[in-house]
Design a protein that fits this description.
- The structure is a single chain.
- Strands 1-4 form a two-stranded antiparallel sheet. The chain has a two-stranded antiparallel ribbon with strand order 2-3.
- It is of the alpha+beta class and 148 residues long.
- A hairpin with a 2-residue loop joins strand 2 and strand 3.
- 34% of the residues lie in helices and 15% in strands.
- The chain has five helices and six strands.
- Bound molecules: protoporphyrin IX containing FE.
């Protein structure tokens, strides 16, 4: 039943896109790799900037900074991102997060329990746009959401 909560899945994806808990991934080139005109020599450590990719208008379009879970409605895997490696909240390939399914299940169960017990509204005191305050959003939003 929890697996059927599709919209919750879209919301989790959108939160993972805009507020990625894991901001970057690391890989080491095991051999020389050519990417277009650039050669990455064997042994080079590469940092993949997940936060930047998730906020890149060239990949996501003009609404890149908007919180819009519906972008995952018709494209549950990539959210309409125009590059198949552009959305990596749980990493990719052989080192993909092994806790992905567990985390998703836990998130849906916990959110369901919270939503059935509380109602939420944005405080009129909310002093800033969430879209432009990525790192601070979690702590500050928490103190500006009133529950009843
Ligand atoms: C929202 C929750 C979580 C997020 C966003 C997350 C994200 C990630 C990311 C980005 C990686 C790195 C993948 C890579 O380098 O390509 C990773 C690896 C890993 N995650 Fe998670 N994770 C989450 C929850 C969990 C949970 C609940 C567990 C265990 C119960 C877990 C266990 C692991 C392990 C063991 C690895 C290392 C896999 C490997 O290197 O082979 N994660 N996770």
């Amino acid at each position: 039943m929890v697996a059927g909560l599709k919209k919750m899945g879209w919301v989790m994806n959108e939160v993972g896109r805009l507020y990625s808990p894991v901001p970057n991934l690391q890989r080491q080139a095991r051999e020389d790799i050519r990417v277009d005109d650039v050669v990455i020599p064997a042994g080079t450590n590469v940092w993949i900037d997940v936060v930047s990719m998730h906020h890149d208008g060239a990949l996501w379009g003009d609404d890149v900074n908007e919180f819009r879970p519906e972008r995952f409605k018709d494209d549950q895997l990539y959210g309409g991102c125009n590059h198949k490696m552009g959305f990596l909240p749980f990493g990719f390939g052989g080192r993909l997060c092994i806790g992905k399914n567990l985390a998703t299940l836990e998130y849906k169960i916990v959110l369901t329990l919270i939503l059935t017990r509380f109602s939420f509204s944005l405080s009129k005191l909310l002093p800033f746009s969430l879209h432009h305050a990525i790192p601070q959003a979690f702590s500050r939003a928490a103190s500006n959401i009133s529950t009843s």
